[in-house]
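hi! just following up on the protien thing from before. the input was this:
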Amino acid sequence: MTIDLLTDRIVECGLVAIVRADTSVENVVAAIGAVLEGGIRCIEVSMTTPGALDCIEQAARRFEGSPLFLGVGTVTHEEVCYEAIGAGAQYVVSPVIAPPVIDAAHELNKPVLAGAYTPTEIFQARDFGADLVKLFPAGFGGVDYLKTVRAPFPHIPLVPTGGVTVDNMGDFFEAGAVAVGVGNGLVNPALVQAGDLEGLTRNARAFSEALRAARGNES
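and the predicted 3d structure came back as:
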């Protein structure tokens, strides 16, 4: 599958669930299954999670053939990019603009969401080849900030991450987001650590419903 088609898949999913928890690999993989059960297909494992590469590898094997679209997050060095893609990641997310990471992912035919916040950073992220630009942390400026930065950059696909909730998701899409990223509000680390799979699935279903409403039932 081409980079463009993989990028389109992220946009079609509409929401990237971010898994970041200080717990066992088994708990993380189980949490991924619970979030998938709740209707969220696009799930990113942050490299700040202990054993993240093992989590990705085991999840890729366990959920092979399922709708899961698995990514790796918090990538800042190209070596990690190679390792995570080798483990089964289908896309790469970075909190910063790291050209070597973008180049490494593209070398392996995978899309990149590069983190940016200011207008200069947003422009640079796209200029360096980011397929999508992760507007992070979106919670500080909120929907109004997204509207403001989209005015000069209507052609740059933005994925607000941080501060997106069930209640305001529709506002972010209305303001022009092509997708959103959600971490603790969806994949609560305490629930992951406790192995509360039912709680994680409930959260995922709530966000799935909000996503359908936000996109006019298209997702």
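The domain at 3-211 is CATH 3.20.20.70 (TIM Barrel).
The chain is about 45% helix and 15% strand.
cheers
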